[in-house]
Fold:
Amino acid sequence: MRDTWPLLEKIEFPPLVRRRLDTLQVNVGYRCNQSCVHCHVGASPQRTEEMEGETIDLVVAVLAHRHIATLDITGGAPELNPHFRRLVRAARDLGARVIDRCNLTILEVAGQEDLAEFLKLQQAEIVASLPCYLADNVDRQRGKGVFESSIRGLRRLNALGYGREETGYILNLVFNPLFTLANMPIQRFGSTLISKGEFDRYLGLLRHAHREENLDSVMCRNLVSVDWRGYLYDCDFNQMLDLPLIGPHGVRRRLEDLLTDDLDRNPIRVAGHCYGCTAGQGSSCGGALKEAAE
Structure:
């Protein structure tokens, strides 16, 4: 796989600094039941990286100590981590809002038959991914049969009350224009761009569409990303580029640092990929930053 970092680090991006931490985004492992062409994590069924129980306990300790409002759980397919449900329960017991980034097809994997009911019981918010409304497009990106499995998953969640305003069970669909994420030019997607000779054109498109006002709302201002080992990053994309938060004496920051240190006003590590968050309406793990113009 071609590395995009040597190209991205040469591209300037406006400086950013952190604000008060209110969201802990935790990647509990890179194992997934899918292997998607556009995946910025490079997740697949062959990946073995997985957050261990001791690190899960530390996540819970940080949530409690810092009174963090939101726990955003991602992967891979986060539900494949054996400690996933324990983490969700512990976070909800602390009163934290829990977001599960669900690929929908995981609902049909052996051992996950009761997953949908569990998520409802815990009142977890679901961010579900379906990149297109056309079956052929989805299956080309994600594998044969993924579209139909995803639709069955959506219908199952709808039947439980998810996505229905009157129930309060939140389901956001990552699909333009409902809940928009830009494909980041890193990992598999970035490598594909390089192989096809499209990398410079794609970066040029992002840079041309950059809007300065989006800088105020990017997720890295108030979020910290945690990898499966417990290391800290400004965002999930920096995690995939191995751009960690660095503390005193050049040491990589870890979860336990959040029990004693504040990150407020710390500089954020930026480079060319950050234009993926500020182009057009803006894009982050929370969707579009700005409403579309009339």
